[in-house]
Write a structure and sequence with these properties.
- It is a single chain.
- By secondary structure, this protein is an alpha+beta fold.
- The protein has a single domain, classed as 4-Layer Sandwich (Phosphatase 2c, domain 1), CATH 3.60.40.10.
- The protein is built from seven helices and twelve strands.
- The protein has helices at residues 3-17, 33-64, 113-130, 136-148, 226-229, 240-251, 256-271, and strands at 69-72, 75-82, 90-97, 100-108, 157-164, 170-176, 181-184, 190-193, 196-197, 211-214, 220-224, 280-287.
- The strands form two sheets. Strands 1-2-12-11-7-8 form a six-stranded antiparallel sheet. Strands 3, 4, 5, 6, 9 and 10 form a six-stranded mixed sheet that branches.
- A hairpin with a 5-residue loop joins strand 5 and strand 6.
- Helix 3 (113-130) packs across helix 4.
- It is globular and about 95 Å long.
- The termini are far apart.
- The model has no long low-confidence stretch (mean pLDDT 86).
Length: 290
């Protein structure tokens, strides 16, 4: 037999002697339907409880902040805060003292639950300092030291703090790395208020200075967080300072709450269907003729 024939015969013999077994069926782990339904119900309950807790936390944050509309003599103050995730990292407080009214609008770096939790702490620090002094630069410097001395790391924060004398309309303010507040005079003149110092939590002994102005009849003071000016539309454009100024001018003659909703409405119309990219806070202070 030739080598070729031998190979063919051997292959034929091996093919005949090889037993072919059917493939073993794959074993599947089957979870009873009832067990799956129980697990799904547990997940749904946990989600509902978490949602309730976040809602309650948001209500606590709302109570820590100033009422949405408040009046002192001839001055009315309107404010609103929007969170991009769960809890806002922004806050706005109004504290009445014997020598005036202290306004504070702050912005914690970051978003979501962590920023919201730190916000409550920062509100407490501001309140503690306001209780012992009315000087804006002293309050801001004290809060900055308190943050820097914390053993746990706190995110950086910006703060605009002002003390208003509701009798004279005289205002002293201090800005810690915050976007400049806008002062729109009744005659149409515009001023940007940026006196102060650096962001909170950078250098313990950072110096802060105080600025001042008089809020006259028909004047409007606008304090805001960068979530307003940095709001994006679907083309990736920012709302910016020019649109903010233009909208404030359009709403200048109205009440504080009307001006507030006018500006916020313009921001929302600009963003259209695009989601928020940052928390937004806005406060309008207006002096009328009362």
């Amino acid at each position: 037999m030739s080598q070729t024939g031998f190979n063919v015969a051997l292959a034929t013999k091996q093919a005949v002697n090889v037993r072919v077994y059917p493939p073993r069926p794959k074993r599947s782990v089957r979870v009873p339907r009832q067990e799956l339904e129980v697990k799904l119900a547990d997940l749904q309950q946990n989600y509902a409880e978490l949602h309730t807790q976040i809602f309650e936390a948001a209500q606590v944050h709302r109570r820590l902040c100033a009422p949405r509309h408040v009046r002192f003599a001839s001055f009315e103050i309107a404010s609103e805060i929007f969170a991009v995730r769960h809890l806002p990292g922004d806050f706005f407080t109004v504290s009445e003292k014997s020598d005036g009214v202290v306004l504070a609008l702050g912005d914690i770096c970051g978003k979501g639950l962590a920023a919201g939790m730190w916000t409550t702490h920062l509100v407490g620090l501001v309140g503690a300092r306001v209780a012992v002094t009315s000087k804006p630069e002293a309050i801001v410097a004290g809060v900055n030291r308190d943050i820097c001395l914390l053993k746990s790391f706190m995110p950086l924060a910006s703060l605009f703090l002002a003390k208003l004398d509701p009798i004279t309309g005289f205002v002293k303010y201090c800005s810690a790395g915050h976007p400049p507040a806008v002062l729109l005079r009744a005659n149409g003149e515009l001023e940007f208020l940026s006196e102060g110092g650096m962001l909170l939590g950078v250098v313990p002994a950072a110096p802060y200075v105080c600025g001042s102005f008089e809020l006259g009849v028909g004047d409007v003071l606008m304090i805001y967080s960068d979530g307003i000016t940095e709001s994006l539309n679907c083309a990736g454009e920012e709302f910016g300072y020019a649109r903010l100024e233009a909208q404030l001018r359009l709403a200048q003659a109205g009440a504080a709450d009307a001006a507030l909703f006018s500006v916020l409405g313009a921001v929302q119309d600009f963003a259209a269907a695009c989601p928020l990219v940052d928390d937004m806070s806005l406060a309008i202070v207006r002096r009328d003729s009362r």
